[in-house]
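The instructor's notes for this session suggest beginning with a concrete chain rather than abstract definitions. Hand out the sequence below and ask the class to guess, before any prediction is shown, which regions might be ordered.
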Amino acid sequence: DFSNSKYDDLTFNENSNLIIIDINDSYTLPILTKEGYTFIGWYDNPEFTGDIVTVVNKSMKVYAKFEKVNE
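After discussion, reveal the predicted structure:
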């Protein structure tokens, strides 16, 4: 939930699973929930390659990766 004042510097675009971060401090990125999906983690690129990002301490974009749950 990004309504918490802790996340005032984060802009979340739910349609693209993108957060734009404009900070001068460090943030631990939240674990997201989305019905029918499992949250995999945050990445610094839309291809979801490389290491998962958990903490940011500079202005950057991060992308949430989800995988559809098999029912």
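Then share the key points. Residues 1-7 have pLDDT under 50 and may be disordered. The radius of gyration is 12 Å.
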